[in-house]
Write a structure and sequence with these properties.
This protein is an alpha/beta fold. Helices cover about 35% and strands about 30% of the residues. It contains six helices and ten strands; from the N terminus they run βαβββαβββαβαβαβα. It binds S-adenosyl-L-homocysteine (SAH). This is adenosylhomocysteine nucleosidase.
Length: about 230
């Protein structure tokens, strides 16, 4: 495949999610901005800049803008999430086709849940080329254990079956997490392509806190393997 992207931004929310990048990226520079550390280097010969955003939408938004200002021409997010689609099991992968903030709620003013007032778009589409790259990588590494879908983000760790049902049925979410839609919105504001790749660490239900602790490490490794495979074909 021809090279489309010359400098790739990669974000993980937690240390586990970027641990392997620390191991495999040939580092050339490190800088700190707004309290977040960014590492520049190469991975499989491609220029990358990666960082740990921290948890939540504000952290994700700030570091996405810093990465874009540092010259990346696309942004990949690697991490874990809670499953919403009942077909998903822990360890399965979701590739974002779009991201929406499920906690954006101005319904008393007549807006649909998730809709940002005075804005044309609230559901931010992922880049089709990046989605396809991720899909190919998943077919190779995790056949039959992945799906594409809408990712719902909010500043909440979801751990309730009722909320899961609501998010899946009302907002058509495939999985839920705490950063994707913030990153997606910042990418859209800057016209930069993005994709979010999430391994399911839990089912966002009453056992989510236990499953999350148990499966985050292995789920983070799975997401990283996809990014690593994608980078070799970008
Ligand atoms: N590391 C901290 C807090 C993690 S918060 C701890 O262990 O206590 C959960 C992180 O995993 C967020 O970055 C979020 O994007 C993702 N996540 C996984 N499962 C989730 C769920 N059920 N609901 C919301 N976010 C989830």
């Amino acid at each position: 495949m021809t090279k489309i992207y010359s400098r790739v931004g990669i974000i993980g929310a937690m240390a586990e999610e970027i641990e392997l990048l620390h191991e495999y990226v040939e580092k050339s520079n490190v800088f700190v901005k707004a309290g977040i550390t960014y590492v520049e280097g190469t991975l499989h010969g491609r220029e990358v800049v990666f960082c740990r955003s921290g948890v939540g939408k504000v952290n994700a938004a700030v570091c996405t803008q810093v990465l874009i200002d540092a010259g990346v021409d696309c942004v990949l997010f690697t991490g874990v999430a809670g499953a919403l689609d009942p077909k998903l099991n822990i360890g399965d992968i979701v590739i974002s086709t779009s991201c929406l903030q499920h906690d954006m709620d101005c319904s008393p003013l007549g807006y649909a849940r998730g809709q940002i007032p005075f804005q044309e778009t609230s559901e931010f589409l992922a880049d089709p080329k990046l989605v396809e790259l991720a899909f190919k990588a998943c077919n190779l590494l995790f056949p039959d254990r992945h799906m594409k879908g809408k990712i719902l983000s909010g500043d909440q760790f979801v751990a309730s079956r009722d909320v899961v049902r609501q998010l899946h049925e009302e907002l058509n979410g495939t999985c839920t997490e705490m950063e994707g839609a913030a990153l997606a919105q910042v990418c859209a504001m800057n016209d930069i392509p993005y994709v979010v790749i999430r391994s399911m660490s839990d089912k966002a239900d009453g056992s989510a806190h236990v499953n999350f602790a148990e499966f985050t490490a292995v789920a983070s490794v799975n997401s990283h393997r996809i990014i690593d495979e994608m980078i070799q074909h970008m």
